[in-house]
TrEMBL record:
Official protein name in the record: RmlD-like substrate binding domain-containing protein
GO annotation, cellular component aspect: cytosol
Organism, as annotated: marine sediment metagenome
Every RmlD-like substrate binding domain range: 4-289
Any Pfam family matching the protein: RmlD_sub_bind
Gene Ontology BP terms: dTDP-rhamnose biosynthetic process
Lineage start: unclassified sequences, metagenomes, ecological metagenomes
């Protein structure tokens, strides 16, 4: 019997990718954007979910404006902490299953080794703190009915993200400065969607990590974007890209300096292998070309 899945955050870059991916699967996918359901409104959430009666909920809804959250903590907390709390209560009561997306920003980056799901969390920003609060609500209220899936540096062909921003700037500017001392792993929504589909099939509980394979700085990622975009004819010419330290590009929110996520447990539990981030980048730029 096919599963009924509610996807929250349908209009975001991951939500749009998941809608395309799940078309090939034996399930009924009901995709809801914030205009349809604000997950911070518990009354509305209970009414909508009660009517839809899903077997699975994928929560890709979040407040992701990292710097803006520093002065807009109420809205960030409503979406990232209160919303997941309401969802966790509902799935526990109904004995359904929740996949809740979280972030590498729950870590400080001080370890300088890949973070495992069991490592101590210590967020540096309001955004990271609110996402951690959401995780804790989900784990406390629906421990046996939920998976927290952390990811990092998410990008796609959709909307505004590092890839689409870099492509725009590379077409407009004569040169770029890009931070080279923040280390992590880019995560294509294509690869993330494959992981989520595997998780929906197996329904594990706990906390897992997913990114593409490999390691990069933002500078490395920018250089690779330009190289591949030129190769595929998306950009006409190369511009100089200069590596700079984080201190030369101050932002309201502090970022982890090292946030590579250890995926060993995920690969074992879900039998899912990540592609290298450079290979995923080729696929995403091909999607933009279409």
């Amino acid at each position: 019997m096919s599963q009924k899945i509610v996807l929250l955050g349908a209009n975001g870059q991951l939500g749009q990718t998941l809608q395309q991916h799940f078309k090939t699967m034996d399930c009924e996918l009901l995709a809801l954007g914030r205009d349809t359901l604000d997950i911070s409104d518990e009354t509305a959430l209970r009414k909508t979910l009660g009517e839809l009666a899903p077997d699975v909920i994928i929560n890709a809804a979040a407040y992701t404006a990292v710097d803006q959250a520093e002065t807009d903590d109420l809205d960030a907390r409503a979406a990232n902490a209160a919303g997941p709390k309401h969802l966790a209560r509902w799935v526990k009561e109904q004995n359904s299953w929740l996949l809740h997306l979280s972030t590498d920003f729950v870590f400080s980056g001080r370890n300088h080794r890949p973070y495992t799901p069991d490592d101590q969390t210590d967020p540096l920003s309001i955004y990271g703190r609110t996402k951690l609060e959401g995780e804790l609500h989900v784990r406390y209220l629906a421990r046996d009915n939920s998976l927290v899936l952390r990811t990092s540096w998410v990008y796609s062909q959709y909307g505004r993200n590092f890839l689409t921003t870099m492509l725009r700037l590379m077409a407009e500017k004569d040169s770029l400065n890009v931070v080279d001392d923040q280390i992590g792993t880019p995560s294509s929504t294509l690869g993330l969607a494959r992981c989520i589909a595997a998780a929906v099939d197996k329904r594990p509980v706990g906390i897992l990590h997913w990114t593409d394979a490999g390691v990069a700085s933002w500078y490395d990622f920018a250089v690779a974007i330009q190289d591949e975009a030129i190769k595929q004819g998306l950009l006409a010419k190369a511009i100089p890209i200069h590596p700079i330290p984080t201190t030369a590009y101050p932002t309201p929110a502090r970022r982890p300096s090292f946030s590579v996520l250890d995926k060993t447990a995920t690969m074992a539990v879900l039998d899912c292998q990540p592609q290298h981030w450079r290979r995923e980048l080729v696929h995403v730029i091909k999607q933009i070309q279409k």
